[in-house]
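Q: what sequence does this backbone want?
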């Protein structure tokens, strides 16, 4: 490539990443940032709505990952005793999720976003950008640290990064799918409803591309494995909590606290072990809270300090002038909750992307109303609510995170992204309550159909 062309492409790159941290380091025309800018420049020059990078490496990664997971799904399906139909649905779920990596790629190139800066290692400035450990840290720094080898060392382009993140996040989605097969409903039409929940688009969109959501989803699911069997999965649980904490400290602290309470609830665990583990967890939780206070620039945990942080965060988001801003500060508790779980809704959106979000929120509202309709049945007849512990934990986690978001977010677009990882558990919780009522009505004396995994 000639120097004038390289300079022109570098100028294009700088315009693409206009919100990134600027440095005085001369551009390295052999690094990944140039490669990404080249692809984007060609895309714009040809006015093509979507032109994928033509590197052999990218095509090879796409082919290998797609084929590997088709094989791995079949292997694990046989190991866990999935029926042919359940196995086919799992493969369809993988194809659907993998396809969202390309949707995400197209959307980000057209509209911009943090994902480009994450992959270009420009979202947060570092003192030593030429060394891998120079990016080590929490939150955005950790994401850039993960991206350093594939993006800067191997020179993979942005699409390759998207499919890598999509493959990783599918590990979490697949695990939840396996959990739900244990309590599959009796009625065939209810089975269709259960499968349909896994195909709602918001989770797939945000977790199938470069970003924190893919990491947070897997961290959440691995942590929730403790509510499936803490004794069998404690190592994975620890990794899930640490991953969550390193990407979003608040999520790690919330999950750690929930698991700590659940651990002390277990009657079969000896008291001496509870005290020992409890002391260690108390120290870890204290460090976690201290790190969160550092990020919030609070000297102490107080109502006044938290409200000041909330106000500052709202003002920060308001300065972007986004079209989906809402006056969250003026909302009462009900309005805040409704906005966090069910907005935007039909009638206040325009465009394909917003319409997809509104349709999913309409389904969420329908599921919530369905659950409210059947709750008197359970309480009135003193019947056990048919929800497994991991769904309870997922719902409680989502509610706790929603409380935090109620005081820090005032943009519907950001809310859709931030809630994407835990809304799946909200949907499944509501749906589980409804199908439990249906199963009881159909077969009072019949054991529910379950599978052993």
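A:
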């Amino acid at each position: 490539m000639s120097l004038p062309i390289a300079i022109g492409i570098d100028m294009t790159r700088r315009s693409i990443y206009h919100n990134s941290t600027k440095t005085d380091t001369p551009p390295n025309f052999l690094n990944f940032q140039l490669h990404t800018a080249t692809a984007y420049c060609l895309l714009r020059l040809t006015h093509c709505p979507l032109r994928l990078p033509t590197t052999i490496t990218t095509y090879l990664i796409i082919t290998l990952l797609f084929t590997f997971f088709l094989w791995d799904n079949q292997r694990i399906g046989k190991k866990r005793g999935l029926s042919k139909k359940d196995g086919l649905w799992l493969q369809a779920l993988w194809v659907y999720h993998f396809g969202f990596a390309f949707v995400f790629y197209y959307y980000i190139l057209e509209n911009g976003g943090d994902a480009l800066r994450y992959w270009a290692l420009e979202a947060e400035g570092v003192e030593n950008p030429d060394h891998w450990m120079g990016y080590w840290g929490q939150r955005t720094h950790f994401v850039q640290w993960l991206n350093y080898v594939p993006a800067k060392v191997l020179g993979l382009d942005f699409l390759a990064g998207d499919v890598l993140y999509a493959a990783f996040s599918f590990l979490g989605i697949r695990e939840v799918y396996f959990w739900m097969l244990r309590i599959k409903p009796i009625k065939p039409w209810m089975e269709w409803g259960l499968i349909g929940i896994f195909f709602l688009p918001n989770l797939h969109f945000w977790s199938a591309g470069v970003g924190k959501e893919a990491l947070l989803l897997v961290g959440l699911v691995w942590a929730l494995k403790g509510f499936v069997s803490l004794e069998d999965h404690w190592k994975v649980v620890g990794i899930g909590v640490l991953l969550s904490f390193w990407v979003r400290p608040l999520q790690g602290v919330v999950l750690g606290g929930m698991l700590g309470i659940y651990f002390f609830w277990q009657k079969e665990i000896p008291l001496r072990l509870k005290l020992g583990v409890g002391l260690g967890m108390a120290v870890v939780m204290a460090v976690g809270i201290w790190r969160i206070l550092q990020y919030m620039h609070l000297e102490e945990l107080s109502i006044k300090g938290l409200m000041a942080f909330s106000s500052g965060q709202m003002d920060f988001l308001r300065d972007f002038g986004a079209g989906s801003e809402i006056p969250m500060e003026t909302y009462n508790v009900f309005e805040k909750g409704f906005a966090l779980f069910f907005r935007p809704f039909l009638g206040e959106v325009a465009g394909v992307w917003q319409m997809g979000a509104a349709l999913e929120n309409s389904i969420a509202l329908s599921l919530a109303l369905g659950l409210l309709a059947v709750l008197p049945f359970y309480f009135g007849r003193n019947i056990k609510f048919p929800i497994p512990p991991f769904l309870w934990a997922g719902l409680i986690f989502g509610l706790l995170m929603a409380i935090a978001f109620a005081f820090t977010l005032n943009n519907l677009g950001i809310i859709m992204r931030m809630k994407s990882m835990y809304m799946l558990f909200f949907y499944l919780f509501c749906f589980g309550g409804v199908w439990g009522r249906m199963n009881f009505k159909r077969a009072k004396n019949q054991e529910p159909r379950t599978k052993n995994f």
